[in-house]
Fold this protein.
Amino acid sequence: MKNLPVILFLFLAGSAFAQGPTASFVDFQRSLPRPSDAIRSKEDTLKKQFAAKGLPWPAKYLYIRSFKYDGQLEIWVKNERKEPFKLFKTYKVCAMAGTLGPKRMAGDYQVPEGFYYINEFNPNSNYHLSLGLNYPNQSDKILSDSVRPGGDIYIHGSCVTVGCIPLTDQFIDEVYILAAYAKNAGEDYIPVHIYPVRYNVKKSMDYLIYLSRTDAQLKRFAQNLQAVYDHFELTRQLPIIMTDARGNYVFDGLAKKVAVVVEEKPKKVKVPVQHRTRNITEVADVVTQWPEFPGGGLSFLKYLDKMGKALGSSLPVGVKKVNVVVEFIIDVDGVPTNFKVLQGVNEDFNDELIAVLEQMPTWQPAILNEKPVPKKMKQSFAIDATADLANSK
């Protein structure tokens, strides 16, 4: 749902504009009319509710789960990365647009299903306050309409929707404050998981089974999401969630009791993954300007460091850390392609490594004679199973 005006500078430099370079994100929110009113009217109540449940205030980590058919949104909290999440509160979702199943195009009135994170705080929303989600995510970009996948998906107030997650103004005040404190504590990617149903509620599951009885694709998608739901129910922790080349969610670190049921078919011989390749006959040897990763070289190193830690749990048993070397080409449009693993681990791991690398964002291409040219790159980095992902953000 469109939220205008969208104040995009909140993530970029809002606190510097409003309060000076040392102000916190929460301090900046206090300088804005609606968030300030919300904090003034709700913060003491939230503190008391936290105290009543034995939870330290404020929460440093937030996890949001929403269930479309059941019309509920949960807030889970914790203060240390390795401790389990605890349920703080369940809110009623005011309305639901569309039906069960993922969002696949603009104008379908569908609430997305899948794994997202908050990428925007809008204190001046047309719907009181709103928290933007990163729809379309990488999976949606592959599986949804390539021209019109849709967008502008929010958790917001005003209790109306054509594809968002609406709450009452009183409820969004609380959720907005909790998210602001988590961001203030350093949680830049607050996870928001949207499920079709509560998988442990018979009525909800019966409806999902009925709806998907003639739709194998919907059934497989819902089962894929259920793997993360079941894992969280067992562990109160979140697995690492990635997307493969076909747009399917894949997971690292699932609890051993969780089985991902994707297809009810006999096991087939593994078919090699088809990776992104282009027919590039010539690459420039010498250029006047090298390709540049978004944000520059330091951002590229941070990207590789984060990815190396995320892939650590995929290393074979007994392997804790390896250095890999990859080669790829930045094409004239900046798309990284033709990945090769020059030094890796094994065939399965190397395939997964390339699939993850292919999600790399578009670069600025190399320049020669004032024109973009293909340029081959070679990069080494560490895959570390012992690293703490908390340091990768």
Summary: The chain has two domains: 9-252, 297-392. The domain at 9-252 is CATH 2.40.440.10 (L,D-transpeptidase catalytic domain-like).
